[in-house]
Amino acid sequence: MTIISAVPPPEAPGKAASVPSGPGRHAIPGPLRFTGRAVRTLWSNGKARLGLIILGLIVAMAVFAPLLAPHSPAATTFRPYLGPGGVNWLGTTGTGQDVFSQLIYGARISVLVGLGAGALATLTAVTVGLLAGYRPGLADELLGFVTNLALVVPALPLMIVLAAYLQGHSVWTIVLVVALTSWATGARVIRSQTSTLRTREFVTSAVFSGERLPRVVFREILPNMTSLVAASFFAAATAAVLAEASLEFLGLGNPATVSWGTILYYAQQQNALLTGQWLMVLTPGLAIVLLMVSLTLINFGVDALSNPRLREK
Amino acid sequence: MALLGAEHLNVGYQPSRGQRIWAVRDVDLALEQGEFVGIVGESGSGKTTLGHALTRMLRPPAHLESGVISFDGTDIASLRGERLRRQRRNGFALVLQSGMNALNPVRTIARQFGDVLKAHAQPGEDTSVDGVLRSGTELLAAVRLGPEVLRRFPHELSGGMRQRVSIALALALQPRLIVFDEPTTALDVIVQQAVMQTIKDLQRDRGFTAVLISHDLGVVLDTADRVVVMYAGRIVEDKAAAALTACQHERQGLYHPYTEALLGCYADPRADVVRLAGIPGTPPDLSLPQAGCSFAPRCPLAEQICRDVDPPLSPLGPGRVACHVRARTANVDVEAGRVS
Amino acid sequence: MRYVLRKVVLFLVTLWAAITLNFILPRLMPGSPVDAALGKLASAGVPVTNAERNAIEIQLGVPHASLFTQYGDYLRNIAMLRFGTSYSFPGQTVAQTIGSALPWTLMLIGASTIIAFVIGTLLGVYAGWHRGRAADSSITVGATFFGAFPPFWLGLLLLYLAAFKLGWFPIKGGYNPGSSPDWSLSFVSDALRHSVLPALTLIVTTMSGWVFGMRNNMINILGEDFVTFAEANGLRSRTISLLYAARNALLPNVTAFGLSLGSVVGGTVLVEGVFSYPGVGGLLFTAVTNHDFPLMQALLLVITVSMLVAIFAVDLLYVRLDPRVRR
């Protein structure tokens, strides 16, 4: 049987000729353009917009702390155990430090550790997830097992034990400890997504056309997981903020630095509630909540980007 | 009086971002009791949307923009909530494509029958466990399945069996009209044939109005009495199936060019030389306003009037056709006494 | 059955890995935890018998001994629950100390988790079913806000408001000091009174995870064909939302239970610290403050193993819920 086809196969429906693309079309560098586009897309989602605004304000507070805080946070120049008043808007600590200034400066550590540990954890998660998900076999099984183990060991107790052992008491110790205990959730998700993507045609065709493994992973698979990685980052950052505050509260951080967690640590040590200084307890906690909520709100926007069913009407 | 009538039906999809798409435009359709109607069209023609609209199963972002839908004389377009739900018993039913997700994965088939029967139970009907098993066995037998299926979970059944169970569940409503939305698309050809035969037999034995939605003209011509062809959200042809299978020279001049092209896409696989003719071009972008006949860009007969004025669906020969050129030549023939 | 077998194997292997991790950890840390522990015991004036010194060394690192023999001794000790002596509680072995604290924590976590799961799931179902409407928005906003509360902070606030200011609940402890634990009605009701605030803190902070998970699952499931088909067949709203949608949406939440347990445990540690509740969390708090390594190490092991057992139990429960894994 001969088959004669009288009509050429149809082109892709709907669109006119596609816009030619190529290197050097834009003056702004790629990653910056990408971030700009990402922020714009998130901005269109109501919840994410609110989150971005709050986060922006907190980061600004951290950056401009010296300008915003009326006094130095560590200076013990005031009378201790004061309630809120004209000079000290939120009162003073048991050693005569201004709580309001501490609150403003405290943003620095919380933002730094939150975003830093979140980024470190996400980087680890992406690396492990991509490696594990890309090829079935020994690497996949082994990394998968390590990931599951890391998931099962409870995070805070492990962090506590590690911090107690390390006794480094520097911010970087905290960042390391937090990142070490929170990479596994992201790794698991990324691994499963990678192993789903690797069976898709565009990956198979890239492999067959001779592209080498790192290129396939970075050029074909990773770009399809951007929203997943972003969601992972924001979730990790949220958890990191809480973890850092918890460690500081338990006295495992560096009590000499000022962070929202240490304010609460001293509040507990100095029985702030019994001395009636409830603002000293309320405000740092509220600040932690706001930072975490802002990150979660942004994550709503990222979720909606990747799952159309969750998009707002 | 028609069992189900739609007049000037318009259905739009309003996405959160972007243009509204008109999926169904100005559809007039009347379905009689006991008819077997096939609705044919390519992807995006609006056939599934129409099927969902007729059974009041449209979901946001799809919405019924305007038009009247009447079932047995009652306007059902404005029904909501509990009144709409009750209307489904002894009313209209929808059977979806087969596949993994047509049935609730965590309930046995027996329980799912129970859910349907209890949801519409009239006083005096037996909805006890035994009653449900009895009714279930009866309904399954009608679709040629044995009673052991009742104890199973959906994942333990094959695709074809799941599709038959879906049909049996719809039958539990004792509907007077059933819309089958691509019931065999996900099945292989052999199973497809068996399921279609079952549907044909059921329709003949029980006398409900069947509406078969499919992109496969062959399947429709094989089972339906009447064929409705849709393109870009409009009905372009509405005729008896027998008329469509008539020979080439007999049907010349009475068919919409799109229908003719569709018929030309099929070839006899047993022939020595097979001529495959596709339809050049692509379906239109439904988010853009459509001036004139939607098929004009791809139509070999297109004239200026086709590009300017939307052709009305008017009676022509043994049915209805929406085409200026055909309508004009038919009038000439009528006047010349050649065609009545 | 294959599913169950796989879960059993996974449980055993992970159990072994957790025990081994616990073995490796102190030996990786800088400094010598053993010397620190022995030193602390000496300065606390606690006499250390050779057997006790041996136990501590096996836990934390025997100098100049092969890793292999250490590991063997370690496993044997674990099996016999010999964790050494703690100087935070002289006169008791670590095993005894943990043993008296564990039931308190188990009851607190157990009750809080179940209540949080039930309420959170119901709220998530409601929010998902009424997606986009006022109920959904308020539930989502509420869950986001309350879920971000650091457990220790909420605990402090509740302590201040309900216990200190209003005096409705006791300020600290698990039971009135001076009474000794038994099963009498007065003790049990006293213990319950003491556990209300800690439990409330835990419930509020862990509930949001279930709410969001369930809501997202509901939204995904509601787009599935079998829900559309159920509606086309005219099933009642309640039947569809509960027996068709929620019942299926529940499944991913159950599989994710293990993941969330870690944060529940973390929260418990903080809450017990704030309320001075006599559970293992409070013990960990004490151990860390005192740099009590043997106690800390043993606590980590006990907590991890308890979590593994709980996750395993839930995995087995999953078989009852999803017929697709029963092959």
**What distance separates the N and C termini of chain C?**
6 Å
- Count of individual beta strands of chain A: 1
Strand residues, percent of chain A? under 5%
Radius of gyration of chain A: 25 Å
Major β-sheet annotation of chain A: none
**Any low-confidence stretches of chain C, pLDDT <50, length ≥5?**
none
Q: Determine the most extensive contact between two protein chains.
A: A-C, 49 and 59 residues
The parts of chain A where pLDDT drops under 50 for at least 5 residues are 9-25
- Share of residues in helices of chain C: over 70%
What distance separates the N and C termini of chain A? Answer: 54 Å
Provide the structure class of chain A: mainly alpha
Q: What integer is the average pLDDT of chain C?
A: 84
Helix content of chain A: 55-70%
Q: Count of DSSP helices of chain C?
A: 13
Total number of helices of chain A: 12
Quaternary structure classification: heterotrimer
Description:
The complex is a heterotrimer of chains A (313), B (340) and C (327). Chain A has 12 helices and 1 strand; from the N terminus they run βαααααααααααα. Chain A has 313 residues and is an all-alpha fold. By secondary structure, chain B is an alpha/beta fold. With 327 residues, chain C is an all-alpha fold. In chain C, helix 1 (2-28) runs antiparallel to helix 13 (293-321), helix 6 (134-147) packs across helix 8 and helix 11 (257-275) packs across helix 13 (293-321). Chain C starts with a helix and ends in a 6-residue tail after the last helix. Chains in contact: A-B, A-C, B-C. Chain A binds chain B through residues 1-14, 311-313, and chain B through 16, 60-61, 269, 271-283, 285.
Write a short abstract of this structure.
The complex is a heterotrimer of chains A (313), B (340) and C (327). Chain A is an all-alpha fold and 313 residues long.
Can you tag this structure with a few keywords?
heterotrimer; A: mainly alpha; B: 340 residues; alpha/beta; eight-stranded mixed sheet
Give the helix/strand layout.
The complex is a heterotrimer of chains A (313), B (340) and C (327).
Chain A: E1 2-5, H1 30-43, H2 46-63, H3 65-68, H4 99-134, H5 138-152, H6 155-166, H7 171-197, H8 201-208, H9 213-221, H10 226-249, H11 260-269, H12 278-306
Chain B: E1 4-13, E2 21-31, E3 36-40, H1 47-54, E4 62-71, E5 74-75, H2 81-87, E6 92-95, H3 109-119, H4 129-142, H5 159-171, E7 177-181, H6 189-206, E8 209-214, H7 217-223, E9 226-231, E10 234-240, H8 241-244, H9 248-251, H10 257-265, E11 273-276, H11 304-308, E12 314-316, E13 319-321, H12 324-335
Parallel strand pairs in B: 3-8, 3-9, 6-7, 7-8
Antiparallel strand pairs in B: 1-2, 1-4, 4-5, 9-10, 10-13, 12-13
Helix pairs in contact in B: 3-4, 4-5, 5-6
Chain C: H1 2-28, H2 33-43, H3 50-60, H4 67-79, H5 94-129, H6 134-147, H7 151-165, H8 185-222, H9 225-232, H10 237-255, H11 257-275, H12 280-289, H13 293-321
Helix pairs in contact in C: 1-13, 2-3, 5-6, 5-8, 6-8, 7-8, 7-11, 8-10, 8-11, 9-10, 11-12, 11-13, 12-13
